[in-house]
Amino acid sequence: MKRDSRLSGVLHVLLHMAQQDVPLTSETLARAMDTNPVVIRRIMAGLRDLGYVRSEKGHGGGWTLACDLSKVTLRDVYIALGCPSLLAIGNRTEAPGCLVEQAVNAALNRAFDDAEALLLRRFGEVTLAMLSDDLRQRLGSRKHQGMSVHA
Fold first, then answer.
1. Least packed by Cβ within 10 Å: which of 19, 63, 79, 151?
2. Does residue 150 form part of some domain?
3. Which InterPro entries would you find in this protein's record (predicted)?
């Protein structure tokens, strides 16, 4: 099963945007993410609808942040993406007739629910500002070593 990397990708894009004082085009962001600009526009539209980013059309236009990084959490961004599945594993069947499989599903569902609740709680504790601060520290360390952001 392929992992859903949209949350990681969006966070990557938002941190790139936080480092810039100018709007970034979908094409520029797509190159940073090694994806298609249409994918960026689709994702960014959801973030725009919730007020996290804004877009400007025309020459010199593009995407800019429209939020306070200290007020937006990983959970907020996860919700903006439509709450993609957090776990790549699941039950073999959702409505089994077999009593053994019913018992297995009940145990797994409790564990899945607990794991998701814990993960979402942690997402709510981490702000974009915290990620940005971590990036700044890493950049400072790299500059001393003469390395680039993507090295």
1. 151
2. no
3. Tscrpt_reg_Rrf2 (IPR000944), WH-like_DNA-bd_sf (IPR036388), WH_DNA-bd_sf (IPR036390)
Q: Residue 10 maps to which CATH number?
A: 1.10.10.10
**Tens of pLDDT, residues 4-54:** 888 998 999 999 899 888 999 999 999 988 889 999 998 899 899 999 999
Three-class HEC string of the chain: CCCCCHHHHHHHHHHHHHCCCCCECHHHHHHHHCCCHHHHHHHHHHHHHCCCEEEECCCCCEEEECCCHHHCEHHHHHHHCCCCCCCCCCCCCCCCCCHHHHHHHHHHHHHHHHHHHHHHHHHHHCEHHHHHHHHHHHHHHHHHHCCCCCC
Note the pLDDT tens digit of each residue in 90-133.
888 888 889 999 999 999 999 999 999 999 999 999 999 999 99
Half-sphere exposure of 19 (CA within 13 A, CB side): 16
Is 151 a domain residue?
no
Comparing CA positions, the residue from 59, 68, 63, 56 lying closest to residue 33 is 63
pLDDT in tens, 42-51: 889 989 999 9
Question: Can you give the residue range of the structural domain that contains 24?
Answer: 6-145
* Number of residues in the chain: 151
- Whether residue 25 lies inside any domain: the answer is yes
